[in-house]
Write a structure and sequence with these properties.
The complex is a heterodimer of chains A (about 325) and B (about 375). With about 325 residues, chain A is of the alpha/beta class. Helices cover about 35% and strands about 25% of the residues of chain A. Chain B contains 14 helices and four strands. At the A-B interface, helix 2 and helix 3 of A face helix 1 and helix 8 of B.
C-alpha cells in the first residue's frame, strides 16, 4: 500500500483555486519532492495532507487514513516540519523535544531514550541543554527535524526545510535527512523551490505550478524527457532577422528559447551544435558575447513543463499570498 | 487531558525564562498605584492667597489673623498682603496667586450691625481641585469668625449631622489598590493572552500544535489555564506588595490572603476568557497592540477603581454594568478595605463566573482546529 495517496484534490479560497485537481502516490520509504515557485500551491497541498486545511474536493490517504475523516490517526502517523521556524527560542533543545513528546503522548519510559537518540542523530548532543535562541539557523532546523520525529512517525512532511539557510547549512541538513530517513525507514514528502535539493534528495519529483501538477517522475526520467541532452546558453553582439529560426535549423538542435538577448538551445549533441553556432555567427558577421554548455537540469525540466524559468517564477508576486489563506 | 498539561508546561517554562514579561506586568500597576495614590491622596498646601483689607476694622483684623494662623499651621495657603486690589487681581490673572480674599470697606460696620457682612474670595477656578480646596478652607475660616459663610444664610440652632465612620480612614492609595490588583491581572492577560498569543500564532507556533493529535478542547484548556496561572501569579504578587505599600492593616492575615487568592483566580479566569474571545479569530499581531490602550481605558476607568461610579454619566454607568473589572474591583475593595467574608462578594464572584462561562462558550465555538 502506498504511504500517501492523493486523488483529485482541490483547494479553493473563495474564487481563487490554490490547488487544482492534483493526484499522485508516494510509495513507502521513498522521498518525494513537490517542486515549484512560491505561490505554486505546494504549501497549501502539504497543509491539506497534514490536516491543517480541509480540502475543497478530492481525497487524500496518509498511511491508509483519510485526512478529513481520520485526521487524528493521520496526525499520529506523521511528523511535520512547517515552513516557519517554530521552535521555542526560550526553551532548550531538550525541552522543545520533551514538550512535543508529551503532546504526541509518547510514554514517559520511552521519552528519554528517544530524545537522546534523536538529539544525537541531528548532532546536537553538546547543545542539548542550551536555549534554542543561542543556536544558528541550521542548528534550529535540525532541532525541528528532531522534534518532528520524537513520536517515531512513519511519514515525514517537510515544508521548504532549507529555505533561509546558507549553502553549507543546507548541505548539512540534506545529509542529516538522508541519514535519518535510511536509519528509520521513513517516507518523506518535502516541498522545495531549490532544484538541486529536489535533484539530490528525491526519488520522485512533482512539478507544481499555478496549483496544477505539470510533471511527475524521477529526476533522471524528468531530465531525460526534456528534448536535448545539453543546453547551450549563448548571446550575440547583434541579432539579424530570423536569427532564432536559423539557430533552430542547425543540426541536432531540438528547441530554441529566447530570454531577452540570451538563447537557450537544447541539443542532442553539445559539441557539434557549439561548433555550428560559432560557424553560423562567423558567417553572419556577428560576434559571440557569451557561451556556456551544460547538461540538462531540473531547471530545464521546469522551463520545459511550465514555460518559464523557476528563478523568474520566484520573483513574481505571488497571487496566492493572501492572508485569508492562513485562516 | 495529558496533552493540555504539555501546553501549560511549555507556557510556564517560557514564562519563567521571560523576566521582562513578569516585570512589565507588575511594574506598571505598582507605579500607577504609588504615583496616583500619592498624587491624588494628599492635602493641598501652600496655595498663594492675596489679602486685600479695605476695611481695617477689628472684625477685618480678626479675619486677617485667622488667615495668618492657617498659613502658619495647616499651611493650606500662604498669604500676601495687598493694599491695591487692582494689583492683586492682576497677579491672580497672571498666575502669581491662586485666589484673592477681599474684605470690603463696610465689612466691620455690617458685622456690628448684623447686616449680612460679606468677604469675597476671587479664585482661579481653572484648577477645580485647588479652587475647591481654597473655598473649603476659607469657608471654614469665615465660619470661625462667628459669621456664616460668604453666601450662605442659616437659621440659628440648625440641626447638626454627626458622622460616624465604620472603617478606619482610607487614604486614596488604599482606595486605588483594588483597581491596581485587577490592572496587574489584566496586564498579564493582555501581554500573555493577547500579544504573545497572537505573535505565536503569526510565527506558526500554533501550527506546531495543530499537527499533533491534541484535541480542540485540550488546546483551548491549555491556552487558557496557562494564561490564568500567569495572571494569578501577577495578581497575587501585586496584592501582597501593594497591600504593604498602601498600608492596609494586617496585610498578611492568612484568611484574607486565602479569600484574595480565590477572587484573584476567578478574576483572572474571567479576564483571560474575555481576551480569548477577543483574540480567537485574530491573526494580525498589530491588532492586540492597537486595541489594548483603548480596552484598558474602557475597562479600568468605568469600573470605579479611581472614582465612584455614582459620579459617571449614564452611558458610562452602562459600560460599568457589563465590565468584569467592576465586579473584580468591588470584590477586592470588600476584602482589602473592609475585610469582609465571601458573603459580601458572592454576587461579584457569580457575575465573573457567568461572564467567564459565556465568553468561553462563544470563543470555543469560534475556535478552529485547522488553519
Amino acid at each position: 500500500m502506498p504511504a500517501i495517496v492523493v486523488r483529485d484534490i482541490v483547494k479553493r479560497f473563495r474564487d481563487f483555486v490554490a490547488v487544482n485537481h492534483i493526484s499522485f502516490e508516494v510509495a513507502e520509504g521513498e522521498t518525494f519532492g513537490l517542486l515549484g515557485p512560491n505561490g505554486a500551491g505546494k504549501s497549501t497541498l502539504i497543509r491539506m495532507l497534514t490536516t491543517l486545511l480541509q480540502p475543497t474536493a478530492g481525497t487524500a490517504l496518509i498511511n491508509g487514513f483519510d485526512v478529513v475523516r481520520q485526521s487524528d490517526d493521520v496526525r499520529k502517523s506523521i511528523g511535520v516540519i512547517p515552513q516557519a521556524m517554530t521552535s521555542d527560542l526560550e526553551l532548550s533543545v531538550e525541552e522543545n523535544l520533551l514538550i512535543f513528546a508529551k503532546l504526541y503522548g509518547v510514554p514517559s519510559d520511552r521519552r528519554k531514550r528517544l530524545m537522546t537518540e534523536l538529539i544525537e542523530s541531528v548532532e546536537l548532543t553538546q547543545w542539548a541543554d542550551k536555549q534554542v535562541k543561542n543556536l544558528s539557523g541550521g542548528m534550529r532546523r535540525r532541532v525541528e527535524i528532531a522534534r518532528g520525529l520524537v513520536h517515531e512517525p512513519r511519514i515525514f512532511f517537510l515544508d521548504e526545510p532549507t529555505t533561509g539557510l546558507d549553502p553549507v547549512s543546507r548541505v548539512a541538513v540534506w545529509e542529516m535527512l538522508r541519514r535519518i530517513k535510511e536509519r528509520r525507514g521513513l517516507t518523506v514528502l518535502l516541498t522545495t523551490h531549490y532544484m538541486d535539493e529536489a535533484d539530490r534528495l528525491c526519488d520522485h519529483v512533482a512539478i507544481v505550478d499555478h496549483g496544477e501538477l505539470k510533471a511527475l517522475d524521477s529526476p533522471m526520467t524528468l531530465k531525460a524527457s526534456v528534448p536535448g541532452t545539453n543546453i547551450l546558453e549563448v548571446s550575440f553582439s547583434a541579432l539579424p532577422d530570423g536569427w532564432k529560426d536559423r539557430l533552430a535549423a542547425l543540426p541536432e538542435v531540438e528547441s530554441v528559447a529566447q530570454h531577452d538577448s540570451v538563447f537557450r538551445i537544447a541539443t542532442g549533441n553539445g559539441p557539434a551544435t557549439t561548433q555550428a553556432v560559432l560557424d553560423s555567427a562567423s558567417t553572419a558577421g556577428i560576434g559571440v558575447q557569451s557561451l556556456s554548455v551544460q547538461s540538462t537540469t531540473l531547471d530545464d525540466v521546469f522551463v520545459h513543463y511550465t514555460g518559464r524559468a523557476l528563478r523568474d517564477a520566484l520573483q513574481e508576486a505571488s497571487p496566492h499570498d493572501f492572508s485569508f489563506m492562513r485562516r | 487531558m495529558s496533552r493540555m498539561w504539555a501546553i501549560i508546561e511549555r507556557e510556564l517554562r517560557r514564562f519563567r525564562r521571560s523576566p521582562t514579561l513578569i516585570v512589565v506586568s507588575l511594574v506598571f500597576p505598582l507605579v500607577q498605584l504609588v504615583v496616583l495614590g500619592y498624587a491624588f491622596g494628599g492635602n493641598v498646601r501652600h496655595l498663594r492667597v492675596g489679602v486685600v483689607d479695605q476695611d481695617h476694622g477689628l472684625p477685618a483684623i480678626k479675619i486677617r489673623e485667622l488667615t495668618g494662623a492657617i498659613a502658619a499651621n495647616a499651611k493650606t495657603f500662604d498669604t500676601v498682603v495687598y493694599s491695591d486690589q487692582g494689583q492683586a487681581l492682576t497677579d491672580l490673572r497672571e498666575g502669581r496667586l491662586n485666589g484673592v480674599l477681599t474684605i470690603p470697606p463696610d465689612y466691620s460696620r455690617r458685622v456690628l450691625a448684623k447686616d449680612a457682612p460679606h468677604v469675597a474670595l476671587i479664585e482661579d477656578n481653572t484648577d477645580t481641585f485647588v479652587s475647591a480646596s481654597l473655598a473649603a478652607s476659607m469657608g471654614g475660616l469665615v465660619s470661625a469668625t462667628g459669621q456664616k459663610g460668604a453666601t450662605t444664610e442659616r437659621v440659628a440652632a440648625e440641626p447638626t449631622l454627626d458622622v460616624v465612620e465604620m472603617y478606619p480612614y482610607v487614604p486614596y492609595i488604599q482606595y486605588l489598590l483594588p483597581g491596581s490588583v485587577v490592572m496587574s491581572i489584566f496586564m498579564m492577560v493582555m501581554i500573555g493572552g493577547g500579544i504573545i498569543f497572537i505573535d505565536d500564532k503569526a510565527r506558526g507556533l500554533h501550527e506546531g500544535y495543530l499537527v499533533t493529535p491534541i484535541s480542540k478542547l485540550e488546546l483551548i484548556a491549555g491556552f487558557n489555564l496557562s494564561g490564568t496561572i500567569k495572571a494569578v501569579i501577577a495578581g497575587a504578587v501585586l496584592a501582597t506588595i501593594g497591600a504593604l505599600i498602601a498600608g492596609i492593616p494586617d496585610p498578611l492575615a492568612p484568611l484574607r490572603l486565602f479569600r484574595l487568592l480565590v477572587v484573584i483566580v476567578i478574576s483572572a479566569f474571567a479576564l483571560i476568557s474575555m481576551m480569548f474571545l477577543l483574540m480567537v479569530r485574530v491573526t494580525d499581531p498589530l491588532v492586540p497592540r492597537a486595541i489594548f490602550g483603548v480596552l484598558n481605558t474602557l475597562l479600568y476607568f468605568p469600573s470605579g477603581a479611581v472614582y465612584p461610579q455614582q459620579g459617571f454619566p449614564r452611558w458610562m454607568q452602562a459600560i460599568a454594568v457589563v465590565d468584569p473589572f467592576t465586579y473584580a474591583v468591588h470584590a477586592f475593595k470588600s476584602l482589602l478595605l473592609k475585610n469582609t467574608g465571601f458573603g459580601a462578594v458572592s454576587a461579584d464572584l457569580a457575575y465573573l463566573l457567568i461572564f467567564s462561562a459565556v465568553a468561553m462558550t462563544v470563543a470555543t465555538r469560534l475556535f478552529r482546529r485547522t488553519l
